[in-house]
Amino acid sequence: MDIKRAKQILSSSADIDITFQGVSVWIDQLHEDEKMATVHLRGPLEERTQVAVKDLVEENE
């Protein structure tokens, strides 16, 4: 994914399915200078981690 699309998803109210290494995640915050994103797993665990935006995948319906 590129940073521009990640920004669009972060500002959208739609529920867009994003995965990181095959696991569904929410984007919490973007760090544009580092091209990183803070994400957390969908579900009861809210552990956050930073990942490269390029490693995020938007799943198509």
From TrEMBL:
Keywords for the protein's UniProt record, in alphabetical order: Sporulation
Signals that turn on the gene: Expressed only in the forespore compartment of sporulating cells.
Location in or out of the cell: Spore core
Pfam annotation, one family: SspH
Primary localisation category: other
Family listed: Belongs to the SspH family.
NCBIfam families linked: SASP_H
Protein name: Small, acid-soluble spore protein H
Source organism of this protein record: Bacillus badius
Gene encoding the protein: sspH
